Amino acid sequence: MTTEHASSLRPAAVLAAQRGWWRLLPLVALALLPLVAPPFWRSLTLEVLALAIFAMSLDVLIGYTGLVSFGHAAFLGFGAYAAAFTTERVSENLLVVLPICLASVALYAVVVGFLALRTSGISFLMLTLAFSQMLFGLAIRWSRVTGGSDGLSVARPHIGLGAWQVPLGPDLDLYYLVLAAFAASWWLLSRLVASPFGHTLRGIKENAQRMQALGYRTRRFELAAFVVAAVFAGLAGMLLAMHNRYVSPDTFAWTTSGQGIIMVIVGGAGTLVGPILGALLVHLLESVGSSATESWRLIMGVVFVLFVLFAPKGIIGILRRLRRSKESPRA
Amino acid sequence: MSDILRLEHVTRRFGGLVVTDDLSLRVAVGERRALIGPNGAGKTTLFNLISGVLPVSSGQIWLQDQNITARPAAERAILGIGRTFQRNNLFAGLSVFENVCLAARRQQGLSSRVFRPAHRYAAVAEAAQGVLAQVGLLDRAGSIAGQLAYGQQRALEIAVALAARPRLLLLDEPTSGMAPAETNQMIDLIARLPPDLTLLIIEHDIDAVFRLANQITVLSFGSVLAEGAPDAVRQNAQVQEIYLGLPLERAD
How many CB pairs under 8 A join A and B? Predict the structure, then answer.
């Protein structure tokens, strides 16, 4: 099948949620893309894929559990710094780096989640923001370990099993690593939100009090969702750090968390696939827009406001409305 | 007969206001106990204390031989206390089917499974369908709960509680806000519930009380004013005084 076909079928694949193999078309297109696209676009696509993992993970919190975290960048940055520390001090083998990164993010998320989830609503939002600002401060101040505002360099890892070693040096290898991580995240998170656990999260979002009256210990489920979301954000952070070969305190900045929220809302919260589209839109605006005009942030702000006002269910909401009106005009 | 629920000297204060005042109560297994009393008598507060939404200020609550005074609401639900709410308290954005599935899934211990799609658990779907059939909502299974007619939402409120298979069910004004015909349907529905399920019912509709209850507790200012079989309570002079000295009729 040609790429032309693939792109025209993409919205259909997105909407035919349950028909499994349609979903593979975008992945096939993404796998073929670096063979035809120049390095700039390949690098941009890689970043979109990593940010899409980040946005999907945030959607588990915002769209499914109803927890609006304004500090999700903490886990993106934590994963990135964990990658820097591990590749420098422990090993450059991905099979070592990956579990260390994910496990340390999970551990940190248990602590943050345990404290932040004692509150809800605005207090939860402020606490998550405070925790990410704390890491931001730590990354700048504790320069002996974190390199301060200069950041740290990150080595490209290899995959090694005994004598068998595959270097991931060239950008193309890393692209396929990120693509594989994206596909795995998408698949795992799709399973998760469709599972009983995912339905439990939706119940909590709808009516936590009634869930308790039915015997759900809601805070445990919220904590589990928080840790899962953090681990996937940490994965995205690790991949971005390996791609950039560098981490800086800016990863922790509240603007990164804010962009995550914009990706989720603009794409369509509670849909998983929406935040992927949100990540695409926001990152395109940022990288293409910032080279074209100084005021790209203004444009992004306007786009966000327009979505909140006129399409609060995001891109996916618009697509669903279009499909409905095609099926039954004036419904 | 063994008691399923025992309250011993339960007091609940809100600041200086004593809403539940040294109240003791025993409910036997399989009883249909109505709680009546004027507004402000502390009936819903009592439900909140029993179900664990509110902690007691002092006193003890026992579920059979377990002291549940300090247990959180979720644990009490797991131990078998179910409740409905005076105002519909559903998962308004989810389907009718999913509303009962959430309860059934928890009851079957499946709610934290992470991999298989939720709809593939046949036992959950079966339980949910059973409960929806029981309350007459099977044909609305696919509707969004928040879009049901008010009376149907009241029925779903009970279905959700039933799907968690409680031993003790607290019904907070099941017929409130209903038209007479709907009220009759609701009373029939409650009357058909299995006899081993103990019911504690707050109800203002006195006809409903006398049709459903085999024991009545009259509350006034947070304590028990009278208690006994319906006929005995009906004859009680003090009770008649509270209901304005008239033969018992619809109070509001």
Answer: 95
Burial group, residue A328, by CB count within 10 angstroms (0-12, 13-18, 19+): exposed
B78 contacts on A by Cβ (under 8 Å): 215
Provide CB contacts within 8 A for A273, sequence distance 6+.
A14, A17, A267, A316
The position carrying tokens 């940490």 is A234
- Residue B111 forms contact with A (CB below 8 Å): yes
> pLDDT confidence of B243, banded at 50, 70, 90?
low
Residue A237: inside a domain: yes
Counting Cα atoms < 13 Å in the Cβ hemisphere of B65 gives 1
pLDDT at A92 over 60: yes
User: Domains in chain A: how many in total?
Assistant: 1
Chain A hits for B93, CB-CB cut-off 8 Å, are: 206
Prediction ipTM score = 0.90
The span from the CA of A249 to the CA of A253, in Å, is 7
Scan residues 261-280 of A and list those with Cβ closer than 8 Å to B: none
The minimal CB distance from A199 to the residues B51, B83, B102 is found for B102
8 Å CB contact between A129 and A257: yes
Is the Cβ of A141 closer than 8 Å to some Cβ of chain B?
A: no
Question: Does any CB of chain A come closer than 8 Å to the CB of residue B237?
Answer: no
Q: CA A265 to CA A283: how far, in whole Å?
A: 14
**A261 contacts A245 by C-beta, under 8 angstroms:** no
Domains of chain B are: 1-80+167-184+198-252 (3.40.50.300), 94-166 (no CATH)
Q: What is the mean pLDDT of residues B146-158?
A: 94
> Across-strand partners of B28?
B3
**Residues A30-80: tens digit of each pLDDT:** 888 888 888 888 889 999 999 999 999 999 999 999 999 999 999 999 999
- Domain residues for A148? 39-253
Residue type (1 letter), B85: F
Domain-embedded: residue A296:
no
> How many other CB atoms sit within 10 Å of the CB of residue A18?
8
Of B157, B110, B149, the residue nearest B131 (C-alpha):
B157
3-class SS shares of chain A: helix, strand, coil, % to 5:
80, 5, 15
Residue among B91, B110, B120, B153 with most chain A CBs within 10 A, to mutate: B91
